[in-house]
Amino acid sequence: MSDLLKFDLLSASIALKNKEFSSLELTNAYLEAIEQTSALGAYLEIVKDHSMDMAKASDKNIKNGTARPLEGLPIGVKDMFCTKYIKTTASSKILDNFCPPYESTVTQNLWDDGAVMLGKLSCDEFAMGSSNETAAKGNVVNPWQKNSKMSPGGSSGGSASAVASRSALAATGTDTGGSIRQPAAFCGITGLKPTYGRCSRWGIVAFSSSLDQAGPLTRTVSDAALMLNSMAGHDKKDSTSANLEMPDLMNYLDKGVKGKKIGIPKEYTQDGISDDIVKFYQKSINWLKVSGAEIVPVSLPHTKYALPVYYIIAPAEASSNLARYDGVRYGKRNEAASLDEMYEITRGNGFGEEVKRRIMIGTYVLSSGYYDAYYLKAQKVRRLIKEDFDNVFEEVDYILTPSTPTTAFELGKKQDPLTMYLNDIFTVPASLAGLPGISLPVGLDKSGLPIGIQLIANSFDESGLISTARVLERSAEFNFIADGAAK
Amino acid sequence: MNESINLKPGQINGETGIWEMVIGLEIHAQISSKSKLFSGASASFGADANSNVSLVDAAMPGMLPVINEFCVEQAVKTGLALNAKINNVSIFDRKNYFYADLPQGYQISQFTKPIVGEGEIIIDLDDGLQTTIGIERLHLEQDAGKSLHDQHPSKSYIDLNRTGVALMEIVSKPDIRSPQEAGAYVKKIRSILRYVGACDGNMEEGSLRADCNVSVRKLGEEFGTRCEIKNLNSVRFIIQAIQSEAERQVEILEEGGKINQETRLFDTSTGETRSMRSKEDAHDYRYFPDPDLLPLEFSDSWVQKIKETLPELPDLLKKRLVTDFGITPYDASILVEEKDYVDFYQKAANGKDGKLTANWMITELFGALKKESISLSNSPISPENLGQLIDLISDGTISGKIAKDVFAEMMISKKSPSDIVKDKGLEQVSDDTEILKLIDKVMLENEDKVKDYLGGKDKLFGFFVGQVMKLSQGKANPGIVNKLLKEKLK
Predict the structure, then answer these.
(1) Are residues B338 and B268 both part of a single domain?
(2) Which of A239, A341, B163, B324 has its Cα between 20 and 30 A from that of B56?
(3) Does B234 share its domain with B160?
(4) Is the pLDDT of residue B472 over 90?
């Protein structure tokens, strides 16, 4: 019943500084909202006392005039981020009861900027999945048409569901092949995957190291800008983190798209996309045109290989990254007579089906005799995909595509892993190329489910991405609230 | 066995003919770095179990490796000292396998693109000959932890202190032909590493270990199937293991059998090798580039800068010692074995008789130190004092015989030789009149012998010299004694 839930991240931040309400009041409103929406299953861990302590500290800072950029704003954290002394499981049984004695760089950046932690959000196990159905603790429900139990998407399904259901003001996510953008699209919110290297991966449970990237899931594009400002930054502890200054994204909210060139890749308008999405894709193109952008047809010829390439590289890296979950030092262990048996039982019981499938695929493609035909070839094609983008970005400033081929699907409906993988067909290419992408809601389909549109920018052009997304956001006037949202 | 055949070292005279060994070595050298290759944890030896373990070493979720630049520099330095090609771009790969003391489930190593490529070194053999051994590559990699299987009846304990410690793996070409060459090769590599400062070369602490690939073939034939003997930690074991492994292979082949390519362990108690795992059981390591690490890239000018920091290396140093100090190549090769030796020698021999200094250092000083189990760095005789002793001999102040007594006193009292000579009045007597007095006395006391000598018993000359020396308590200058005696006894 709280009016406080109406505030988005940016407006709440202003209201807090104007002392319209306190962080403790805002945080309490969210803690209540979490209880109210608990049936959605978004949260794995709620840290009420910790949240309230942080809120009180924020109120002191606001009172003392020492408020930081995210002071007092309650947010949720995807369970892939290690949070000091707070259970971190990556939604896996194998890390059941794992409490890291350290905090990930990205979450530490958020707390250092004053954000208040609400709890840990469910996701697909080790971020492997596109429906949040691989989570060990069970499904998360999309707050849109909550009675028909739609998937919130994945892997950041808990984050998307929480933000869309107003049980978090914003949330962190990680995106390896679309894990921020696809759930954002399914849940009618904004999801931004920054350029690979923009956010430190230190302290984030690794899935596929050359693809994983943290980013915000928020209600608005401005909120994404505000939050990414705090999350991003060079980190010496991550050798792949970019040593580049990120401009203050809040300065780019209203730069517009006049004179900018928007590429429309012909490969992204093929069969299998729902009519409503095609319709809103067309509308989005027109909005940008009307706002002064030039629309340019482009071609990314290697797009069709993106999914197979992704499903070689990501599992290959995952098979190695997940080797450390062996029951020896932390996490769950099933005792056995021999070391090999202990590994087999521990990992056999600890990992879910999808994770095991990917470990098997990854092990296979790296095996001697298969390496050249799979992994090495996939790396070569990955370079071609990147070159496609490099060529296109010589002609245009941004690329516009649908975020997903369909809107949210019913939980339990997609049993075949290959059909599931097709969900990421529009998000995977930018991931392989390391490019920043944002998905934002632009409308509802016939059945009332949100439709997301994706913008892709050149490396490290998050500022331009924000400017352009803001134009779309204003044109689309997407003001719908999920029926399952806290009231 | 046909004893009359002249076998070269490393050759085995079998029933069917002469066999030759083909040996290649993989040396694992721990880099002398305070911290580990990819983490800030201490790399020191001998700490309490699991006390030098960072979150990265323990492979906690989300932890990432960060390259230790010092280790990269040491690898490049070593590569340059091995006359090897430095690869300006190299890549870290993951070598995947499961073991309880390998927390990540993979070892970070370099597979396809190592930091250092081909090179070569010259090794010195006991017979004074030299031979060149090719270097295939040098790469950086992490060490694994330690499994302790003997601490509990049913459990194994794991110590992760060594996990992630920086190693250089130096791979030779299969150019080595005898266990002795293998030993000389390891000694040379060890010496180079110590000169460069990249590794302390301490084999007892495991800072330097070798895997030996051994095969045999009939002279002039193709390479045979090889076996790898793992983890040898002394030159003596390397020599023993290679010899016994080669003999085992010859025996099998001569009985018409086949060598199975396999990994073997050397049993120090039996002096023989035994099978550890066969090729069929070998791991598929699924190497792939580590996506957590960027390629190592450096410019030529950076490599040049590293090159400028290299100390004078043993081969060149040896040549210079021969030219500058006039010593034999053999003495020079002993002196350059350790940087300590050469530094000591150069200080001691500065402005002195180089040859004499080398003799005294190698024979007397090394002998005395070895007897007392003292290292050169703790020698009671300083290089300056040894040099002074050489001067006292050279300028005739003391005789070589007295010098030995002075040396013995120096070993005990640490006093300077000139002080000892002064305190004990040991200066050599070179004054003709003094010596003539002694000669007269001896001749007077031995009139009959003088008669015999003059009558043709030449051999008695030595007797007179000895008597004069005895009378002078060894202080008379033997040269002058000789000269004057000859004149007197004409």
Answers:
(1) no
(2) A341
(3) yes
(4) no
Question: Residues A471, A288: contact at Cβ < 8 Å?
Answer: yes
Identify the residue among B158, B288, B290, B297 best suited for mutation to test binding to A, counting A beta carbons within 10 A and taking the highest. B288
Task: Identify whether B10 is part of a domain.
Answer: no
Closest in A239, A323, A328 to B106, CB measured: A323
Q: Is residue B409 part of a domain?
A: yes
Helix (H, G, I), strand (E, B) or coil at A144: coil
Catalytic residue among A78, A120, A193, A260: A78
- The confidence band for A419, taking pLDDT boundaries of 50, 70 and 90, is confident
Q: Do B62 and B207 have their domain in common?
A: yes
Q: Tell me whether residue A179 is one of the annotated catalytic residues.
A: yes
Q: How many domains does chain B have?
A: 3
Residue B476 belongs to what domain range?
432-488
Tokens for B338, please give them.
């350790």
Q: Nearest by CB to B98, from A82, A240, A323: name it.
A: A323
> Which residues, 6 or more positions from A322, have their beta carbon under 8 angstroms from its beta carbon?
A126, A351, A355, A359, B105
Q: What are phi and psi of A194, to 5 degrees?
A: -75, 175
Helices (H), A44-180: 48-63, 105-112, 157-164
Predicted confidence (pLDDT) per residue in A304-319, tens digit: 999 999 999 999 999 9
| pLDDT the model gives residue B330 | 87
pLDDT tens digits, one per residue of A3-45 = 999 999 999 999 999 999 999 999 999 999 999 999 999 999 9
Interface test with A, best of B286, B287, B290, B296 (most A CBs within 10 A): B286
- B153: contact with A, CB 8 A cutoff: no
CB pair distance less than 8 Å for A316 and B288? yes
Which residues in chain A have their CB less than 8 angstroms from residue B60's CB?
82, 100, 102, 329-330
The pTM for the full model equals 0.91
Q: Are residues B168 and B62 in the same domain?
A: yes
Phi and psi for A46 in degrees, rounded to 5?
-115, 135
- Given B424, B452, B476, which residue is the final one in a domain? B424
Domains parsed from chain A with CATH numbers: 3-255 (3.90.1300.10)
